């Protein structure tokens, strides 16, 4: 009977990231500010890339896809965590728990592949600039993007269904701020060693293969940069590549630590700290790194600012003219009224 109850568990208890102390409340405020900054930065970056035709090249096509994934990834978990903290809520249904596992794996897997594609794009642009239009044509870019989303989604669906089919024993407490596969699987009362092998295989495909592509691409890029005759060309190429590599190091480092270890080695409370890197920190840093160190994006931002300023100035002038005409008409009506009632 107990075994049946484990199979039909309908809810879990999320212990969350924050405790009800003054220090953790300050951390809550900080996370709120980071969330707002992340949403603003990534949304603005997507808007700039979509409206500025100078940014309609594969590099920025991949970049706005990355920003979209970061927005979806963060808003899938962080707002609920903050809402639960304010309402003192810890219960999450099995359905919503499975949904969080699916979203985390789907978006995370897609981003891993996308980062690999971005490194290949940088390799072709820097090392083979004359062949860039041929090797990175639009049909191929769209095909690679669709393939990355499809691969991440299918992998997530398989692992979510398999994970949620395990029986869960004893405590329902998940020492995390959202349902993540290794943490939830740790509650299973069955031997998960065979399934962990499957996780390792899929992680190798979606994580280590793109990471290997990134390392190979940047090794070749570094060699090419060193051989460049122009100091300005070396500086521009190194700036673009180093910004991408910074994001990759933060993201892949945390993901590898989280998913490339046996389930039994996961320490209670440690996983949620690691998860902060790829759910909050990296998505917040992406627009900063890719915009502040990129002349094309900064140029598009400056152009957008000028257009907005011009429109606001025009609206202000028009409203001023309308207000002047309104005052003239009002004064004329008052004068006419006074003259008509004067004996």
TrEMBL record:
Coiled coil: none
Residue ranges of domain G-protein coupled receptors family 1 profile in the record: 41-290
One Pfam family this sequence matches: 7tm_4
Entry keyword set: Cell membrane, G-protein coupled receptor, Membrane, Olfaction, Receptor, Sensory transduction, Transducer, Transmembrane, Transmembrane helix
Chief place where the protein resides: membrane
Signal peptide: none
InterPro entries: GPCR_Rhodpsn, GPCR_Rhodpsn_7TM, Olfact_rcpt
Function description: Putative odorant or sperm cell receptor.
Family: Belongs to the G-protein coupled receptor 1 family.
Name of the protein: Olfactory receptor
Species name: Ailuropoda melanoleuca (Giant panda)
Source lineage: Eukaryota, Metazoa, Chordata, Craniata, Vertebrata
């Amino acid at each position: 009977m107990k075994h049946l109850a484990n199979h039909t568990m309908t809810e879990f208890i999320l212990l969350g990231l924050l405790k009800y102390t003054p220090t953790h409340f300050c951390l809550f405020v900080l996370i709120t500010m980071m969330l707002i900054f992340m949403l603003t930065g990534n949304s603005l970056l997507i808007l700039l890339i979509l409206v500025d035709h100078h940014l309609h090249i594969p590099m920025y096509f991949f970049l706005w896809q990355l920003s979209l994934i970061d927005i979806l990834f963060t808003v899938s978990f962080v707002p609920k965590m903050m809402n639960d903290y304010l309402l003192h809520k810890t219960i999450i249904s099995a359905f919503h728990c499975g949904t969080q596992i699916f979203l985390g794996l789907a978006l995370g897997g897609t981003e891993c592949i996308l980062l690999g594609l971005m490194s290949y794009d940088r390799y072709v642009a820097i090392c083979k600039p004359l062949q860039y239009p041929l090797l990175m044509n639009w049909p191929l870019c769209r095909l690679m993007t669709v393939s990355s989303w499809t691969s991440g989604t299918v992998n997530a669906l398989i692992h979510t269904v398999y994970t949620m089919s395990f029986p869960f024993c004893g405590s329902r407490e998940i020492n995390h701020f959202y349902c993540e596969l290794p943490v939830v699987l740790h509650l299973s009362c069955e031997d998960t060693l065979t399934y962990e092998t499957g996780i390792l295989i899929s992680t190798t495909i979606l994580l280590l293969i793109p990471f290997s592509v990134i390392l190979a691409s940047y090794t070749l890029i570094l060699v090419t940069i060193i051989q460049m005759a122009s100091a300005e060309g070396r500086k521009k190429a190194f700036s673009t590549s180093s910004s991408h590599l910074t994001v990759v190091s933060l993201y892949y480092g945390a993901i590898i630590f989280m998913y490339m270890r046996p389930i039994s080695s996961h320490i209670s409370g440690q996983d949620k700290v690691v998860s902060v890197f790829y759910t909050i920190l990296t998505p917040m840093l992406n627009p900063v790194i890719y915009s502040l160190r990129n002349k094309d994006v900064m140029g598009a931002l400056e152009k957008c600012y000028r257009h907005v300023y011009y429109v606001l100035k025009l609206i202000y002038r028009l409203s001023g003219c309308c207000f002047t005409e309104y005052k003239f008409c009002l004064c004329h009506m008052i004068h006419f009224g006074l003259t008509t009632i004067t004996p």
